[in-house]
Amino acid sequence: MRALLLAAGFGSRLRPLTDFTPKCLVPVKGQPLLGIWLERLTQAGIGPFMINTHYLAEQVDSFIESSPYRERVELVNETILRGTAGTLIANLPFFHGRDGMLIHADNYCLADLAGFLRAHANRPAECLITMMTFRTENPSACGIVELDDRGVVVGFHEKVANPPGNLANGAVYILTAELLEKMNTEWRTAQDFSTEVLNRLVGRIYSYETAELFLDVGTPESYAKAND
Question: In this predicted structure, what is the pLDDT of residue 200?
């Protein structure tokens, strides 16, 4: 299974740490986030990879070039950011018409990725996406999902004051070939995956909840927790 890792962001909330380091390369316990992703994905039998870059792109280029994964990574620099859906749509040929992964690479994720793949293989037939979810201690700061008794998403609550639960969208997805084809036809002009795609697929997204550590390292507090 091929994976597109989104790694082009500025990491504004992590400044000054990201003033001179792209967010995807901030170290967790001495290892850059992007390196953790590539190592764990490879161990689960996933790859090859595509990584989009923008902010401090030359540092990401240098990291990949000196990494053990350089032969399995294709780097795509965006001089103007396309948005999460825009990047996916621009690079649909990368998936060769098969199911593939879309990953926000600025999360620290220790989930069982092989288990995630198995969940996708056994999803309800109508589901076009399998979404990784996790329990958060701060639900009002996350996108909270509601599920039916089969684990299918029936509602989204994006950063609201009192969401109905604490099960959050981890922004790590397995997309079916059918969904990727829809991106190429019905949703060709979409830019943001969360607001322009996911909301249209309520009732057709399967949830895989990880019990392992999952953290958005977007703030100094969560970054410190990841390194604790």
Answer: 94
